[in-house]
Amino acid sequence: MKALKQLERLVRINKLIKEEKTGTPEEFACCLHIGKRRLYEHLDELRNMGIQIDYSKQRGTYYFSNGHEIELSFSFKIISKETAKEIFGGNCEYFCRVLVLCTERNYL
């Protein structure tokens, strides 16, 4: 479920930066339920992908400064255990647990 949590965090980071409603780095990190150091790591990862993110002290927010933003999309599909075994080389236990959790949380 770590991947889903990271994806949800990335969606939230994008939304807040796009709307220019991040607040200070401390407020932004708190809003994401992470430490300031982890926030900086996420921002550095995005910058390494070519997304220019800057901070305005005057406005008190991060913003996309080169017109780029993040577009995210994902989907879940229920597949048979046999298909999962083909994809994962015979070991689909983790994948099957993810599908069950996603179904329980109404992600599907």
Largest sheet: 2 strands, antiparallel
Q: In which range does the helix fraction lie?
A: 40-55%
Number of strands: 2
CATH topology of the largest domain: Arc Repressor Mutant, subunit A
Give the CATH architecture of the largest domain: Orthogonal Bundle
Q: How many individual helices?
A: 5
> What oligomeric state do these chains adopt?
single chain
Sequence of secondary-structure elements: HHHEEHH
Strand content: 5-15%
Q: What structural class do the secondary elements suggest?
A: mainly alpha
What is Rg? 18 Å
| Mean pLDDT level | 81
CATH class of the largest domain: Mainly Alpha
General shape? elongated
Strand neighbour order, sheet with most strands: 1-2
First-residue to last-residue Cα separation: 14 Å
Count of the domains: 2
User: Which residue ranges are poorly predicted, with pLDDT under 50 across at least 5 consecutive positions?
Assistant: 99-108
Name some characteristics of this structure.
108 residues; mainly alpha; Arc Repressor Mutant, subunit A; 2 domains; two-stranded antiparallel sheet; 5 helices; 7% strand; disordered C terminus
Q: How is this fold's topology laid out?
A:
Layout: H1 2-18, H2 25-31, H3 36-48, E1 53-56, E2 61-64, H4 81-87, H5 93-104
Antiparallel strand pairs: 1-2
Describe the model.
With 108 residues, the chain is mainly α. It is 52% helix and 7% strand. The protein has 2 domains: 2-64, Arc Repressor Mutant, subunit A, CATH 1.10.10; 75-108, no CATH class. The protein has helices spanning 2-18, 25-31, 36-48, 81-87, 93-104, and strands at 53-56, 61-64. The protein has a two-stranded antiparallel sheet with strand order 1-2. Strand 1 and strand 2 form a beta hairpin. It is elongated. Residues 99-108 have low confidence and may be disordered.
